[in-house]
Task: inverse folding
């Protein structure tokens, strides 16, 4: 039995709690949240042991691992304390809003020899895993460009302030939404050596971004573009899509299916044919022991638990790999702040980050 | 329960295989009359039960049925609540408590205020839950709702948490207030059945993915086969085609051979598909003697 605590009971924390509590090899030894209300309800109806004080929980509850799902800016200090105690740590994404801290924590986790994982669940989606496999097989030859997109309905109107609406707290479309496709780009192409044309634009949010666009430059002339908008109500829920162009074919993938076009010059993988190929969830997804919101959520926690049980340290989504995504996020923020550049390296005098429409004065 | 129930996924941009297809269906069914036309097609094929979410656009369907009582005299709704995305998005916006408050009825009913307010203060889930059920049920007022379902995201979330009391509260309220039978949709049927049994919820109606390839049958194919054989419950099979992975004939033939299944719920957009599904079910699942 792995003794686990879940810290932070927002949407993700409760979801993790429901999934991990049903795991046959896990005992949820404690839950921790700053708000007593949810804790009291949970304790009253499910009997789980509760804490409002993280330090007290680390001291008093006998734990092997923690799942941290607090607001992003709190991740760093909490992860550090857990690592100092030698606990295995699963942390929600983005890993840290401070990319230097992310590197330090990644190094500390390695030094402590504990399992460390970040909740980039897309790496557990069958279709996105198949993309990785095909790229490694060289099925579409040399990749030249990737388009990574994510859209969904999160912020649809101006609204009050919470950590999700403040970039300094790790909220906003870049940290919350764009982090996923950026993480997939890291997985497929590695670290970019530069970014450009980054746009972090607000649509409804006052203190953070609602849409993110930009270009990432990789070794060998490869490039990627990212296009993300979490104020798009035409999508029922978050929808992420990856399109990849290679010298011998093209791949398009989302959570449900992968479409692959292979040219006659392609090295055709087993089960594939020339021209279009379509594979979808049913054949690409492994069953999970317990399902709540998608196999990938269960699969990533199952993987975490198995790594602990089997003492495996070669994690998918390790702190080290998540720190890369934090770094790309930091690069995009710096690039957007610099503003657009024009010919001869001149910088535009007015950075177009506050574009709010010509009638915006009527609303203020 | 009828042998064949009509589901609503196709109307609201839900397709487990293709986001493109989901989007084109969402566009097609933008006009509620197109939805009603398909429901009429199903009705004329003898499929008179609509198992639907409490998506706000279902209220328009309900209005239509209420406005034409003769045409739909024996029409039944099996509401599945809540429409989870509504709550999930609100939770991101307002937090857990904020989301609950957001959906509690606010018409100024003293009953609501007391039931909701007092319950929130006392951390008494019963009052809040029953109020939320009432809020979700409002759109079906005056229509036949003999079975009311708790939707799978919520069932499985509560099941995972071990929040078993909520199932009892739901079942009681649905029975006493609406004279309906409680139904539970799940992706984890064997585990849910154990819990319902332990709560004394007898012979429950449970809707789950039941298909030949084991798609989204968490707990494992064998466990599903076993509980279908051994447990006392009324199963409704959904995702019988595994979102198109199994050819229709093969899919229906297999499901019809399984014990303990009372109904199949399916979604279709064309008259042809509705007709052929009904014919397949009729041929593999001859009418049981009453």
Result:
């Amino acid at each position: 039995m792995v003794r686990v605590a879940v810290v932070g009971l927002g949407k993700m924390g409760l979801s993790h709690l429901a999934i991990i509590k049903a795991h046959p090899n896990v005992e949820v030894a404690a839950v921790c949240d700053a708000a007593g209300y949810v804790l009291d309800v949970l304790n009253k109806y499910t009997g789980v042991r509760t804490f409002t004080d993280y330090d007290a929980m680390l001291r008093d509850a006998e734990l092997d691992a923690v799942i941290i799902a607090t607001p992003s800016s709190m991740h760093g200090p909490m992860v550090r304390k857990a690592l100092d105690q030698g606990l295995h740590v699963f942390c929600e994404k983005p890993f840290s809003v401070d990319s230097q801290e992310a590197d330090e924590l990644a190094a500390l986790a390695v030094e402590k020899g504990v399992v460390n994982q970040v909740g980039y669940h897309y790496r557990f989606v069958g279709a996105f895993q198949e993309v990785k496999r095909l790229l490694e097989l060289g099925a579409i030859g040399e990749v030249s460009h990737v388009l990574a997109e994510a859209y969904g309905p999160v912020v649809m109107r101006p609204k009050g302030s919470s950590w999700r609406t403040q970039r300094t707290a790790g909220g906003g479309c870049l940290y919350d939404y764009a982090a996923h496709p950026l993480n997939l780009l890291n997985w497929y192409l590695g670290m970019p050596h530069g970014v450009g044309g980054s746009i972090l634009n607000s649509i409804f949010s006052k203190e953070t971004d609602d849409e993110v666009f930009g270009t990432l430059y990789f070794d060998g002339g490869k490039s990627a573009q990212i296009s993300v908008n979490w104020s798009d109500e035409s999508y029922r829920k978050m929808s992420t899509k990856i399109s990849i162009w290679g010298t011998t074919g093209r791949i398009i993938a989302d959570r449900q299916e992968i479409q692959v076009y292979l040219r006659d010059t392609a090295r055709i993988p087993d089960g594939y044919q020339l021209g279009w190929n379509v594979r979808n969830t049913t054949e690409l997804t492994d069953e999970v022991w317990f399902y709540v919101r998608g196999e990938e959520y269960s699969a990533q926690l199952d993987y975490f638990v198995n790594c602990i049980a089997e003492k495996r340290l070669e994690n998918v989504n390790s702190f080290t790999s998540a720190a890369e995504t934090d770094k790309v996020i930091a690069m995009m923020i710096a690039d957007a702040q610099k503003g657009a550049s024009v010919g001869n390296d001149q910088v535009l005098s007015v950075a177009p980050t506050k574009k709010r429409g010509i009638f915006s004065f009527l609303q203020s | 329960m009828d042998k064949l129930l009509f589901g609503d996924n196709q109307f609201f941009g839900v397709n487990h295989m293709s986001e493109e297809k989901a989007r084109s269906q969402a566009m097609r069914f933008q006009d509620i009359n197109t939805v009603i036309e398909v429901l009429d097609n199903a009705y004329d094929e003898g499929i008179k039960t609509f198992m639907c979410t409490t998506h706000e656009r279902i209220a328009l369907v309900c209005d239509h049925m209420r406005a034409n009582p003769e045409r739909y005299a024996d029409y039944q709704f099996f509401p599945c609540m809540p429409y989870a995305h509504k709550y999930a998005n609100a939770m991101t916006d307002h937090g857990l408590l904020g989301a609950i408050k957001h959906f509690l009825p606010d018409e100024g009913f003293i009953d609501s205020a007391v039931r909701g307010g007092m319950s929130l203060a006392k951390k008494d889930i019963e009052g809040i839950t029953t109020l939320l059920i009432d809020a979700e049920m409002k759109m079906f007022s005056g229509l036949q709702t003999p079975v009311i379902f708790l939707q799978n995201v919520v069932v499985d979330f509560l099941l995972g948490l071990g929040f078993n009391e909520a199932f009892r509260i739901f079942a009681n309220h649905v029975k006493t207030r609406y004279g309906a039978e409680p139904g539970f949709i799940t992706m984890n049927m064997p585990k849910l059945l154990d819990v319902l049994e332990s709560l004394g919820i007898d012979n429950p109606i449970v809707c789950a993915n039941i298909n030949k390839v084991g798609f989204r049958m968490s707990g494992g194919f064998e466990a599903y086969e076993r509980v279908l054989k051994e447990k006392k419950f009324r199963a409704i099979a959904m995702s019988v085609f595994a979102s198109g992975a199994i050819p229709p004939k093969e899919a229906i033939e297999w499901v019809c051979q399984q014990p303990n299944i009372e109904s199949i719920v399916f979604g279709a957009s064309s008259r042809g598909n509705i007709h052929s599904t009904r014919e397949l079910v009729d041929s593999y699942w001859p009418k049981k003697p009453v």
